[in-house]
Amino acid sequence: MVTATAARLRPADPASAAAWDIAARVADPEVPVLTIEDLGVLRAVRSDGRRAEVILTPTYSGCPAIEQMRDDVILQLTAAGYEQVDVSFTLSPAWTTDWMSDEGKAKLSRYGIAPPNGEAPVRRGPIPVALGVACPRCRSLRTREVSRYGSTSCKALYECLACQEPFDFFKVH
């Protein structure tokens, strides 16, 4: 299923679109229920049918998974018959959770990770306001941040006060 965000990025020419479709199936090594397309990390693909150039944007500048994503993209495209595959990274524009597909956010929730909800958990200003992060298991908003960093640096560790389960929250940025 091609999401609205991916549809805007998916190349129009058939050779590049075919390479995009192969690269888009690569799983995120940290959250294997997501593809790099779901995550919004896959930014561009150009191909003539024999060679492919792929551009990825890491979720963080120090993302440890980006090298594995690159290797997996090269492996997938090479296995599909591409003779030369080049993968490069760009930090501009910076990745944002807005690039995640709605399908990807739903996958996160089913996997037990609270997806980004478009709002940062705490708004800064004259009066800080804590916004609720729904528990992906019981949907309660009675949750609290335990640690700003969860299982990876792009997630925060939360606890549900209703069902007592810990869970990761994919941070908004």
CATH topology call of the largest domain: GMP Synthetase, Chain A, domain 3
Q: Estimate nothing, just give the exact number of structural domains.
A: 2
Helix and strand content put the structural class at alpha/beta
Order of helices and strands: HHHEEHEHEEEEEE
Helicity range of the residues?
25-40%
Widest beta sheet: strand line-up: 4-9-8-7
Report the top-level CATH class of the largest domain: Alpha Beta
* Known CATH architecture of the largest domain: 2-Layer Sandwich
> The biggest beta sheet, please?
4 strands, mixed
Q: How much strand content do the residues show? A: 15-25%
Mean of pLDDT: 88
Number of strands: 9
Structure description:
With 173 residues, the protein is an alpha/beta fold. It folds into 2 domains: 4-98, GMP Synthetase, Chain A, domain 3 (2-Layer Sandwich); 112-170, no CATH class. Helix content is 25%, strand content 23%. It is built from 5 helices and 9 strands; from the N terminus they run αααββαβαββββββ. It has helices at residues 4-9, 14-23, 36-39, 66-79, 102-111, and strands at residues 42-47, 51-56, 84-89, 113-114, 122-123, 129-130, 143-147, 155-160, 166-170. The strands form 3 sheets. A 4-stranded mixed β-sheet has the order 4-9-8-7. It has a 3-stranded mixed β-sheet with strand order 1-2-3. It is elongated and about 55 Å long.
